[in-house]
Amino acid sequence: MLVRLSFVFSLALCAAAATNSTAAISSKATTSTTASSTTAASSTAAATSTTTTATTATTKLPKRGLAFAADNGTDISQANHTAGVASWVYNWGLIPPSYLVDSGIEYIPMQWGAADIENLAVSVKGLGAQTILAFNEPDFDQQSNINATYAAELWMQYIEPLKASLGIRLGGPAVSSGATGRPWLTDFMAACSQCTIDFLPIHWYGDGTGGFYDYLYQIHGQFPNHTLWITEFAETSSNDSVVLDFMNQTITTLDGLDFVERYAWFGYFRPKDGSHYNLLDVNGNLNAAGQVYVDGAKKVVNALPNPTGSGTPLNGAPVTNTAGGYTTITPPADTGLTPAFAQPTGNSGRRTGGSVLGNLGGLSAMLVAMGFGASLVGL
Ligand SMILES: *[C@@H]1O[C@H](CO)[C@@H](O)[C@H](O)[C@H]1NC(C)=O
Ligand SMILES: *[C@@H]1O[C@H](CO)[C@@H](O)[C@H](O)[C@H]1NC(C)=O
Ligand SMILES: *[C@@H]1O[C@H](CO)[C@@H](O)[C@H](O)[C@H]1NC(C)=O
Ligand SMILES: *[C@@H]1O[C@H](CO)[C@@H](O)[C@H](O)[C@H]1NC(C)=O
Ligand SMILES: *[C@@H]1O[C@H](CO)[C@@H](O)[C@H](O)[C@H]1NC(C)=O
Ligand SMILES: *[C@@H]1O[C@H](CO)[C@@H](O)[C@H](O)[C@H]1NC(C)=O
Ligand SMILES: *[C@@H]1O[C@H](CO)[C@@H](O)[C@H](O)[C@H]1NC(C)=O
């Protein structure tokens, strides 16, 4: 929901000529055979005394993807290394910039709105794409803003034919989780009864796993014949440890749900507008959440020096390193995974705003400001 039209188009426009990305996709081994003895994190002096267990032979997670909203293409380098577990990437655009093509991670193109849809077939053919996404939050007037009837017409004219001619898997429109989302989708499905929708992407923003699971199961209950992709989701709390815990629980759940085909956390970008769900720090390195999501870290060690060495959580408070030692943040055991089938709660469908000042006060920003990275301990 957050990517502005101009941003999407600027990425698309600066892209190099259409490239057949199939080669790049297939060149990416699903399993790394090289054991690594180095931390995936951007270690600094603070992290040097932290034990790092090597990630041996990282297995890519087939569902896990990157919603690449970064302004700086070099940021993708943090995803493509031995420890990386993400297996696909999208950027709300149709033509991948060269840095995404070269990343070796499968790129999924998107027909974001109605504009230029006449060129869709030529573009996806040039890309050698096997899967596409369609219409980003068409129910939302600040996003692609297409009514359901018109979207169905566009689908039948420009999207549906790609299946027969090119064998492409078609992702349906991705509605917002706001009040307009499900009514729009219901109307679209009725208007598009002849459409072949291979999977249904959805979005969710809110606070707490309960609302997320409720929404997921409501959509699944309404459209049981469609597998789902969650192409944007995030915990909107401004408490980094709440965000991390939500992520920890939900990605584990999504990996195990057979009606969920793929998912992409929102998102792969540096801190912006007070966000706390970004996966990168201000320098484009993986932050604590990024290490869990992108590198599959099991446990995140806060590399800030602990003044007492007692293991007391630091909660982001500035400290002086008087005694050395590190605080380990261990997310609590998974709870609340049973869907309640209730109305979503805490789910406005809109990202909550945040001030720059609020963000600067956050733990991840502070880690950077103090020159400390975080490192990983494998379990
Ligand atoms: C990183 O990308 C390169 C292509 O530039 C690819 O050859 C390599 O396999 C990728 N590495 C990983 C771990 O994905
Ligand atoms: C893309 O490249 C792959 C691998 O070289 C090839 O099999 C496929 O036919 C190509 N697709 C297109 C549309 O050129
Ligand atoms: C839907 O959008 C199309 C294209 O903009 C427009 O022609 C049509 O009047 C709209 N229909 C409704 C019901 O708003
Ligand atoms: C799901 O598919 C089955 C079998 O084709 C069909 O009977 C059923 O009506 C479908 N359900 C919905 C909600 O479309
Ligand atoms: C953040 O959330 C954690 C876990 O719920 C809690 O222990 C901590 O007090 C919260 N921090 C702040 C600053 O609210
Ligand atoms: C992209 O990020 C890298 C690493 O932080 C930096 O060196 C480079 O200047 C940035 N490029 C742009 C265009 O901002
Ligand atoms: C979530 O936290 C638990 C408890 O620390 C840990 O065992 C598990 O590996 C974590 N899951 C992820 C995906 O990081």
UniProtKB/TrEMBL annotation:
Residues 66-293 form the Asl1-like glycosyl hydrolase catalytic domain. GO terms for cellular component: fungal-type cell wall. One of its GO terms (molecular function) is hydrolase activity. InterPro entries: ASL1, Asl1_glyco_hydro_catalytic, GH. Pfam families: Glyco_hydro_cc. Residues 1-17 form the signal peptide. Keywords: Hydrolase, Signal. It comes from the Eukaryota. One of its GO terms (biological process) is fungal-type cell wall polysaccharide metabolic process. This is Glycosyl hydrolase catalytic core-domain-containing protein. The lineage of its organism: Eukaryota, Fungi, Dikarya, Basidiomycota, Agaricomycotina.
